[in-house]
Structures are given as structure tokens and as C-alpha cells.
Specification:
The chain contains nine helices and five strands; from the N terminus they run αααβαββαβααβαα. By secondary structure, it is α+β, with helices and mostly antiparallel strands. The protein has a domain of about 55 residues. Strands 2-3-5-1-4 form a five-stranded mixed beta sheet. The longest helix is centred in the last third of the chain and has 33 residues. The radius of gyration is 42 Å and the shape is elongated. The N and C termini lie far apart (about 145 Å). About 20% of the residues are buried.
């Protein structure tokens, strides 16, 4: 009766030692930010880790041939016609294989106000300069600036962390395949779930950075060359406005008559009394004159 319990204890001790060695190896090879993510996962007993001696692998270095830059540009252009310029910008975006992110157009509503439009677009980074040159041809460039941020170190860090976390995932999967008891399987499964969650988060951040490096963002502001007064309304809009005003006036007049009728109905008893008194006085006065 004692042999099965001893075998179970030895199996649990072996699984714990193997799991502790894998976690120790991963924490040693992953950069500090990744170690913090793995630190929150359940760790086997200290005695089991001490019995497992494994050398940590160095984090792989990803070579970079050139800086990985996120470029952003902003430009203000004075144009003769904002509407035509917007159409031209759309054509430029299509030629440059870019995307229109947002368009905010403001029509002049007051005298001496300008017709303006704010456009945000993105184009492949290798076509940024040529796109800016095409946009500059729309009119007169009032201001232009370009900013760049090197994210090469972040890309290398994310790639190294992904490599090490995937190695940890593979090792944990092997341990899970060899685990015997339900408790050991659940422990390894929990650790495997934490590692996979970290992989998904870092992979999303890596893809986001790579996308920002591949495509540059341009914020373009178009302004009309001259101020324009309030635009003249069409005949149809003026007729429609007159019709609306007249129907509204008729409605108000009708409501006023109804209100007046209600007031007269409410005060009608007093009017009847006054009218009766006036009629009686009139008869009395007439009879008096006739008698004389």
C-alpha cells in the first residue's frame, strides 16, 4: 500500500522540478519586462527548483541594417479652391497607394471667413517624400515639418521576448504531455495560459510598431487663398424658407384665435351680466323719456 504513494510523490517531485527548471530558464533568458509578466505565474516549491540545474540561454540578438523610424509629417497649403484640392488629394492618395484616415471640412459661415479642410492620410514610408512633393503642388506651402522616432530597440526587444516566450511555451507543452496527476496538469496548464497571453500581447505590440514603421502619417491642412463672404442661397432654399415662415405664422395666428376664444368662454358669464345690465338701463331710460 505504500509503493503507489511513493511513486506518486516521486512523480510529482519530478514534474515540479522539471517545471521549475523551465521557468527558471525562461526568466533568465527573457528581458526584464518579460520576467515581470512570468513572475505573476505560479512557481513550484523552492526545493524542487534547487534540485534542477539548467543553464540559461542568452537572448538572441536580432540584427538591424538601418534605423526603424516612425515618420510623421504636417503641412499647411494655401489653395485657390478647397473643393478641387480635396479631389486632387484623393487622386494623389490613390496613386501613392495610401489611405485616407479622416477628413474635416469647414465651410465659411461668416463674412471674411475662409474655407478650410483638415485631412489625415497615411502612405508607405518610402513614398513619403514624393507624396509631400505632390501635395505641395496644390498651392502655396505655408508650413511643413517632419518628425521621426527610432523604435529599432523596441522592435528588437519585442522579437527577443517573443522568441524566448515561444521556447517556454514549447517546453511547457512537453511537460504537460508527460504530466501524470491532475494537479500537475492543472499547474502546467495555468502556466502555459499565462505564457500564451504574454505572447499575444507582445505580438500585437510588435505588429503595431511594424505597421507604424511601414506607413507614415501626414496631416494636411488646406486653406482658401481669399476670404469669402456668406454664400448666396439658392432660389429654392429662399422659397422654402418663406413657405416655412408663412405656415409658422398662420399656425401661430390660429393658436392665438383659439386662445382668445377660450378666454371669452371663461369670462362669458360676466359679459352676460354686463350686457343684461346695459339692456335694463337702456329700457329704463327709454320708458322714462316716453313718460315725459
Amino acid at each position: 500500500m505504500q509503493k503507489p504513494s511513493k511513486l506518486t510523490a516521486k512523480s510529482s517531485l519530478f514534474i515540479s522540478a522539471l517545471l521549475g527548471g523551465v521557468i527558471f530558464t525562461s526568466c533568465a533568458s527573457v528581458p526584464p519586462s518579460a520576467n515581470q509578466e512570468l513572475a505573476s505565474a505560479p512557481v513550484p516549491a523552492p526545493g524542487a527548483v534547487a534540485n534542477f540545474n539548467q543553464k540559461a540561454d542568452a537572448a538572441p540578438q536580432v540584427p538591424r541594417s538601418r534605423p526603424q523610424l516612425i515618420k510623421k509629417a504636417a503641412m499647411t497649403v494655401i489653395v485657390n479652391s478647397v473643393d478641387k484640392s480635396i479631389d486632387n488629394v484623393t487622386q494623389i492618395i490613390n496613386r501613392q497607394q495610401g489611405d485616407l484616415i479622416s477628413l474635416n471640412e469647414q465651410q465659411p459661415t461668416k463674412e471674411n471667413s475662409r474655407h478650410t479642410a483638415s485631412i489625415q492620410l497615411r502612405v508607405p514610408q518610402n513614398l513619403l517624400e514624393s507624396t509631400l512633393e505632390e501635395l505641395a503642388k496644390l498651392g502655396t506651402v505655408e508650413n511643413r515639418n517632419i518628425t521621426a522616432e527610432d523604435v529599432g530597440d523596441q522592435l528588437v526587444d519585442f522579437q527577443a521576448r517573443l522568441t524566448n516566450l515561444r521556447k517556454t511555451e514549447a517546453s511547457l507543452q512537453k511537460i504537460m504531455d508527460r504530466a501524470g496527476s491532475v494537479r500537475d496538469i492543472l499547474s502546467v496548464a495555468q502556466e502555459l495560459s499565462n505564457v500564451r497571453q504574454s505572447i499575444e500581447q507582445i505580438d500585437a505590440q510588435l505588429k503595431n510598431l511594424q505597421n507604424q514603421v511601414a506607413y507614415s502619417t501626414i496631416t494636411l491642412k488646406l486653406e482658401a487663398a481669399v476670404s469669402s463672404s456668406s454664400p448666396q442661397r439658392g432660389v429654392s432654399s429662399q422659397i422654402q424658407e418663406t413657405w416655412n415662415n408663412s405656415t409658422q405664422s398662420l399656425g401661430n395666428f390660429t393658436v392665438g384665435l383659439l386662445k382668445l376664444g377660450i378666454w371669452l368662454m371663461v369670462y362669458s358669464p360676466y359679459f352676460v351680466v354686463l350686457a343684461g345690465g346695459a339692456y335694463a338701463f337702456y329700457r329704463w331710460r327709454r320708458n322714462r323719456l316716453v313718460s315725459h
